[in-house]
Amino acid sequence: MDTLSLVTFLPLFGAVAIALTPSRARGWIRWFSLLWTTGVFVYSLKLVGAFQTNADMQMAVNASWLPSLGISYKIGIDGISLFLVMLVTFLTPITILGCFNSIEERVKEFFVCMLVLETAMIGAFVALDLFLFYVFWEAMLIPMYFMIGVWGGERKIYATVKFFIYTMVGSLLMLVAILYVVHQHRVQTGELTFDLALLLGTVFSSQEQWLLYLAFALAFAIKVPMFPFHTWLPDAHVEAPTPGSVILAGVLLKMGTYGFIRFAMPMFPEAAIRSIPYIAALSIIGIIYGACVAMVQQDVKKLVAYSSVSHLGFVMLGLFALNVQAVQGAMLGMINHGISTGALFLLVGVIYERRHTRLISEYGGLTKVMPFYATVFMIVTLSSIGLPPLNGFVHEFLILIGVYQANPWWGILAASGVVLGAIYMLWMFQRVFFGEVTNEHNASLKDLSPREVLVFIPILVMIFWMGIYSKPFTERMEPAVTKFVDQMTSVQQAMNDTGSK
Length: 501
Hints:
Layout: H1 3-19, H2 26-50, E1 58-66, E2 71-77, H3 82-98, H4 107-126, H5 130-151, H6 156-189, H7 196-199, H8 206-223, H9 232-239, H10 242-252, H11 254-267, H12 269-274, H13 276-295, H14 300-319, H15 324-355, H16 366-369, H17 371-384, H18 391-406, H19 408-433, H20 450-468, H21 471-500
Antiparallel strand pairs: 1-2
């Protein structure tokens, strides 16, 4: 089996091994899951080592799957998808190590869900056949549904149903659009195929392209989630167990932004360009709204959840600025948000395991009793608000430069989100960690254990590495990003020329 397929399906093989293990072997299941996913990450480093810095799809595999239906097993990676795959393989073992002791019921089933979810996430990032992509896209929903519904909090059923309904509505519209695109391609060429590269040449009328684009865009906007499709996210995060929140924020939200740059925008470029003012407006509203709502939250986890609405608004605005700096910043933003926000949810999980509350009012003065924990939390907080030389600064700087070039007012309004982000994150940090220990339950809290230190070391390394020396990431992304921007701007220029005649 080729390297990319192995990276994709190794977690699924591990899930099968766990499924065949007796449920009583909890310790073995935990250690096997950790070692197996760590091995997947180490093996996935081969993708980075073998990657050539160009705009082509690499390590591609194209095998006939269901030839009578035009469906193939076609996968590949470029600079846009490479580090998203690496984000999945990097976060999964860290998440498993982080929840080593917190998952006590149905341990076997939980880790099966984790490994199945890893395969589905990687598959969605590497799929180049629309049917294959849709299979992986829907497959992600199942383990996440169970992770929230079985291991979630008090209102887990409500959060699960809401998450499921939102996601399924968008997904079904996208499925209808996929089938219509395939049908039109067959009418025009006589060829039945779900191959993305071939479908990109399909011609649509302006009305068809607009409706098809809206179907794809709605599915991806819900997943991002963009304002006003964000309301499922805080409930899902608050009720999900810590590992569910980490994976949801760290990776699953990127499926929406990735869907725009890989599918919706290249397939329907004219409609995408016409939508720029609307997407920009919704992104800016999301940036400011998410920050303002986060500012008034009393639950730390809900505060971090709303911060994702604001951060992903930056990413969407960068994608639709349609210049290399902004799009490259958006791609880095996907990775950085996954690392920093994933770390924030892990940190919230640490004190929740000790105190079983996430209310900010229950804390105060934690720096005195948990100094190492406070230090890690401070670094991740500063990373989240984009302080140099940490990773968040690089993508925010690139996005704001690119967005300002596209439209100065967009840049000015988006920059307000940086200020608001600093306010709500630093204010939360002040209330939780500074001052006197007024709650007696906090006086005897234990600092980070050796296992928890191991959880955060690789995250801190990535935070400083991507902030100080991001060239290994940007140089691999740039050719694919430049190709995407050139394709979109050429269509935009052609539309302008047509409109001026």
